[in-house]
């Protein structure tokens, strides 16, 4: 089974995180940021991943460190769980409608981190979650997972719906990309490496 776990502690956050790419049986998210918990749960459920995330962060300051550091650790654990990447489909794309909003994510597990992000959010906060942190999370995740990631809110009115569409699309696109295809010999790359 492809899985990885980590404990990471800094002066700003203490994170325990585990991901199971092939076993969606348990999703347990507790970051102290309610809306972010909801988004990580949506990512895991729609990606059909097992995901456990427990975070103690400096929320007396704001939610920035909690969200960004979770993206860092999640990215690293996805990269570790993928191992040598042999047989993976590598690319994944998903459009997800969420009522008035349409979110798009396309990604390549290339080993070359890159983020293109387009999303404007009318509300600055949802609960104790700063909406500008959506981009910060996606960037931290992409760079530490070694993924080329394009994320875009194509349209929408409701801030909650726009962000949720992106997290669901991320889960679904990643699910597609990490699938093992028995017809792929080695890694799907003309270089023979994905790094």
UniProtKB/TrEMBL annotation:
Enzyme Commission (EC) number: 4.2.1.19
Domain of life, per lineage: Bacteria
Catalytic activity: D-erythro-1-(imidazol-4-yl)glycerol 3-phosphate = 3-(imidazol-4-yl)-2-oxopropyl phosphate + H2O
Keywords tagged on the record: Amino-acid biosynthesis, Cytoplasm, Histidine biosynthesis, Lyase
Record GO terms (molecular function): imidazoleglycerol-phosphate dehydratase activity
Pathway: Amino-acid biosynthesis; L-histidine biosynthesis; L-histidine from 5-phospho-alpha-D-ribose 1-diphosphate: step 6/9
Keyword presence, Cytoplasm: yes
Subcellular location: Cytoplasm
Coiled coil segments of this chain: none
Keyword Disulfide bond (UniProt): no
Family: Belongs to the imidazoleglycerol-phosphate dehydratase family.
Matches recorded under NCBIfam families: PRK00951.1-2 (NF002107), PRK00951.2-1 (NF002111), PRK00951.2-4 (NF002114)
PANTHER family in alphabetical order: IMIDAZOLEGLYCEROL-PHOSPHATE DEHYDRATASE, IMIDAZOLEGLYCEROL-PHOSPHATE DEHYDRATASE HIS7
Record's protein name: Imidazoleglycerol-phosphate dehydratase
Upper lineage: Bacteria, Bacillati, Bacillota, Bacilli, Bacillales
Gene: hisB
